[in-house]
Amino acid sequence: MGFLTGKRALVVGVASDRSIAWGIAEAMAREGAEIAYTYQNDKLKERVEELAGQTGSRLVMPLDVAEDAQIDAVCDTLRREWAQVDVIVHSVAFAPREQLSGSYVDTVTRDGFRLAQDISSYSFVALAKAARPMLVPGSALLALSYLAAVRTIPNYNVMGPAKASLEANMRFMAADLGPSGIRVNCISAGPIKTLAAAGIGGMRIMLHYMEKTAPLRRCVTIEEVGNAAAFLCSDLAAGVTGQTLYVDAGYHVIGMSPE
Ligand code: NAD
């Protein structure tokens, strides 16, 4: 019997079998959770349905997190199918591609900044707000962050402030929902080659730098992020909330490269 047996988890953000959300869904399913999936648009529908099938799930819904009506529709379906939701995973981010390379100050725009904040941060609390009546003591919410929330990283640009906002959002949600027994955390993952990461300039150099510099001298995998997420959203982590857990081969503790 897995440590998530009996839990029902909504996983938002699977786009392919390389998605961090997929690593999380697989780990949670392995530990006994029942999973509901969403896909951003019709182009991703078939792929997400096929992956969902691999974890025995038939609950697959469209969701563009910029649309409150779609968030409400997902929650309506979950209310009908499940009544209660134990886990929500937010593994979603977006910024216009042209803002993810070069000079931060020169490339950032009002619209780009607003969009990055909306999709990558606000949508986390929007999901919590809509799902609130289905959350119960013991429910756990999780979002995916990155080191650029607290350090500058070349090319990450407008996504840095979006991740800083996401982590602050998570702390406010944790403080607000904690008295109801609901936990809220982030995982700050090291760089992993995914569709979203491909949009960030210099990703290959970043992965190489990690391998040379991180204490574990390697990058992390979606399986490792998935296992940490499964733990954080389980009752094994019942005392943990308001936390950003780094799953980055230790990279964030390095002050200076050994070379
Ligand atoms: P991914 O491309 O596999 O996943 C990103 C997901 O965001 C996709 O499923 C996409 O459909 C979804 N998305 C974007 N805009 C959306 C919208 N408007 N509505 C609904 N869904 C939308 O890439 P990933 O790397 O697995 O990214 C998942 C999360 O992990 C993101 O928050 C990302 O910032 C974070 N993260 C990634 C890395 C990395 O190096 N890959 C590192 C740290 C954190």
Molecular structure report:
This protein is α/β, with parallel strands linked by helices. It has a single domain, classed as NAD(P)-binding Rossmann-like Domain (Rossmann fold), CATH 3.40.50. 42% of the residues lie in helices and 16% in strands. It contains 9 helices and 7 strands; from the N terminus they run E-H-E-H-E-H-E-H-H-E-H-E-H-H-H-E. It has a 7-stranded parallel beta sheet with strand order 3-2-1-4-5-6-7, sandwiched between helices. Strand 2, helix 2 and strand 3 form a beta-alpha-beta unit. Helix 1 packs across helix 9, helix 3 runs parallel beside helix 5 and helix 5 runs parallel beside helix 6. It is globular, with a radius of gyration of 17 Å. The protein starts with 7 loop residues before the first strand and ends in a 12-residue tail after the last strand. The chain binds nicotinamide-adenine-dinucleotide. Nicotinamide-adenine-dinucleotide binds next to helix 1 and helix 7.
